[in-house]
Amino acid sequence: MASILRQGLNRITGADEAPQPPAFTLSDMASQGDAYVHTVRTEATKVVQKAKAEADRIRKKAEADGQAAAKASMAKLLDERMGAELATLRPALQSVVSEIEAARGEWHAHWRQSAIGLAVAIAEKIVRRELRDDPTISQTWLAEALELAAGASDITVRVAPVDLESLRSHAEALAASMSGIGDARFVADESIEPGGCRVETRHGSIDQQLKTQIDRLFEELS
How far is the CA of 146 from the CAs of 30, 86, 152, 208, 212, in angstroms? Predict the structure, then answer.
């Protein structure tokens, strides 16, 4: 009787029935699907971003390597071209340097000649002025010429007409004090510069004109 009652109670309470799994609705399945899709998309986005970053890194490295290679190639090309250009220009440059050196030498010589010419011209101007004011200069030149002609016979002294009398009297005084000078013949010559003289002998002439002395000085300095 008790067992019968227990069985009846179990049927009423469901104590002998096995547990049933929970039931899922369509909305639950849709939510789970959305979550899974979101997760997949997120992971896919990360993969794509990582791939893009890696691709960008590879591209930049390739560009850097390419630029370095291009720069190296360009530098080598420039070196080769510069070497070729220098090889072509070297003879021309050497020629230009030689021409500059020659021109500098010519300029130096020209400058020196010009400086000497200027100095001589200044000296001539000063002496001419002194010659007008100091007659002893002409007398000194005549004495030097007669000393060089001493011992020669047939001496002719050519002077400017304005100096004939003054230099003749001075020459006579010199002849009296100097040995080896005989009678000298004085000639007034229009071609002789005032203040100067030219002493002529059988062996040659001694020109003591200012112009002649200036030319001689210029040649010696040149």
Answer: 147, 70, 10, 10, 17
3-state SS class at 157: strand
1 belongs to a structural domain: no
Question: Is residue 22 situated within a structural domain?
Answer: no
CA dist 172 and 168 (Å) reads 6
157 has which bridge partners?
A: 186, 199
The parent domain of residue 113 ranges over 57-133
**Are 141 and 159 spatial neighbours (Cβ–Cβ below 8 Å)?**
no
Beta carbons of 159 and 192 less than 8 angstroms apart: yes
Tens of pLDDT, residues 21-66? 455 455 555 566 556 556 656 765 776 577 667 767 777 776 677 6
**Model pTM greater than 0.70?**
no
